[in-house]
Amino acid sequence: MTTILKDYVDQAKRVVVFTGAGISTESGIPDFRSPGGLWTQNKPIYFQDFMASEAMRVEAWQRKFNMDDTFTNAQPNAGHMAIARLVQSGKVTSVITQNIDNLHQDSGIPDERIVELHGNTTYAKCLDCSTRHEIEFVRAGFEQAGTPPPCSKCGGILKTATISFGQSMPEEEMLRAEAATLACDLFIAIGSSLVVYPAAGFPIIAKQNGAALIIINREETELDEIADLVLNTEAGPTLSALLPHN
After folding, report:
1. 184 marked as part of a ligand binding site
2. How far, in whole angstroms, is CA 117 from its chain's centroid?
3. Which CATH architecture has domain 1-29+76-118+169-246?
4. Domain spans of the chain?
5. What's the pLDDT tens digit per position in 96-135?
6. Looking at the DSSP assignment, which residues form a beta bridge with residue 115?
7. Domain 31-73+120-162 falls in which CATH fold?
8. What is the pLDDT of residues 2-50, one digit of tens each?
9. Any residues with CB less than 8 A from the CB of 104 and at least 6 apart, and which?
């Protein structure tokens, strides 16, 4: 089946890669939704609760700091590196990701080639003025005062640069993802359960626009029936097989 996958990639001119949590579990980052995942241990904090309650903001940041070792020690795996090689070769035009772990950037893919639909947990932003703050700044203030510090520029509320439940999707990123999807002739969804919308709508858009659709995921997805090829395999070995000398 990897031979068929390689044929699709070789024949395509503009490939879009769409990634979900399944590619990063191979780097040791837990899947939030799976049994035993973070959301089965802690209920998600909704955006409106984060905004309304200092106690919820404290809880959200405490969870973030507890998870930091998992994220900061994670390294790109073979799947991330294979995608980076395909971007460098010009075959892959864009990487649309639901992940917040920065591993695509760490693999060497330029920021302008990455569309982060759910944001990025490796830094914070002010919800008022959008000024970026490093996590170290927030953590130092939190440990000193027991609460997250305000924005150093305007005094606004700081939050990880991720999209929480109840928070609006980033308009610019959604537009970039749609444009890339409509321009591709091959859309490869990797490690995503394809149940979280609007993100999961992009494979459908690609297929309806005439692109071939390939799904690589360890388990079945609801979109398997419209895909041209489905591979229930690990992302790393599967994608590595696309590269020369493998």
Report:
1. no
2. 7
3. 3-Layer(aba) Sandwich (3.40)
4. 1-29+76-118+169-246, 31-73+120-162
5. 999 999 999 999 999 999 999 999 999 999 999 999 999 9
6. 96
7. SIR2/SIRT2 'Small Domain' (3.30.1600)
8. 789 999 999 999 999 999 999 999 898 877 655 555 545 678 899 999 9
9. 19, 76, 80, 83, 84, 95, 97, 114
**Phi, psi (degrees; rounded to nearest 5) at 9:** -65, -45
- Specify whether the CB–CB gap between 143 and 97 falls below 8 A: no
Asked about 80 being catalytic, the answer comes back as no
For β-strands 186-190 and 229-231, DSSP reports them as: unpaired
- In the numeric block, the tokens 């790109």 are attached to 76
Query: How many other CB atoms are found less than 10 A from the CB of residue 1?
Result: 13
Q: Give the whole-angstrom CA distance, residue 224 versus residue 230.
A: 6
Whether the Cβ atoms of residue 56 and residue 63 lie closer than 8 Å to each other: no
Are 1-29+76-118+169-246 and 31-73+120-162 in the same CATH fold?
no
The label of the residue with tokens 């503009």 reads 14
C-alpha distances in Å from residue 182, one per residue of 139, 199, 210, 216: 41, 14, 9, 20
Q: Give Dmax over CA atoms of the chain in angstroms.
A: 57
**Residue 154 counted as an annotated binding residue:** yes
**Tokens standing for residue 63:** 């969870």
Residue matched to tokens 């995608």: 83
List the catalytic residue out of 80, 118, 133, 245.
118
Determine the Cα–Cα distance for residues 8 and 16; give it in Å rounded to an integer.
Answer: 12
Would you call 92 helix, strand, or coil by DSSP?
strand
